Amino acid sequence: MLAVLPLGATEQHGAHLPTETDTLLAAATARAVAGRGPTVLPALAYGASGEHQSFPGTVSIGTEALATAVVELGRSVSTWADRLVVINGHGGNVDALRLAIPRLRREGRDAAWLSCRTAEDPSDTHAGHAETSLMLHLYPERVRPELAVPGCTRPLPELLPALREGGVAAVSPGGILGDPTTATEAEGRRLWEALLADADERLDRWSPGERDGMLR
Predict the structure, then answer these.
(1) pLDDT digits over 65-101, tens only?
(2) pTM over 0.85
(3) Angle at Cα 174 formed by Cα 171 and Cα 175, nearest 5°?
């Protein structure tokens, strides 16, 4: 039996998207792969979001606490499930997963994780074109397009030093990395289909990386 744990975050996504955006996308992905027969667990809605902490609405438990939570959940789930996959909706959770999943695997538990992040452009990584398009496709009632404004559109590699020093607010006063004003439902549908095709392929292959446990 395969168990699926959606892992998201509670953090600002500009004025046009809800703070639970990452959790909603992870949960939708988990439900979509549930047609394959796995048990979908309730989503873990708090992650490592320290880079967004200066914005109201952000709630972060940090990398260490998140890694511990995933380990303990994995231990519990492994008493009745043969495999566990964590579907991650927030990039800030990756360090915790790289700690937790290899630990579970060293303990003999068949755990892995995969990302449902969709940005194809390094200048569009948070609350921008891709994420807003996906939300317009999956949860249109949760999007307020009239409040969308362009954010910082410099490539992420250029922003990393400032992000590490001062968080997202240091590079984008509105908390957006990308341009949500170009988002469309049609683009969201295209991204969603590509995301699910990738997830299906990785689940079929079930090849966790030796160091980080991510499905290849």
Answers:
(1) 999 999 999 999 999 999 999 999 999 999 999 999 9
(2) yes
(3) 65
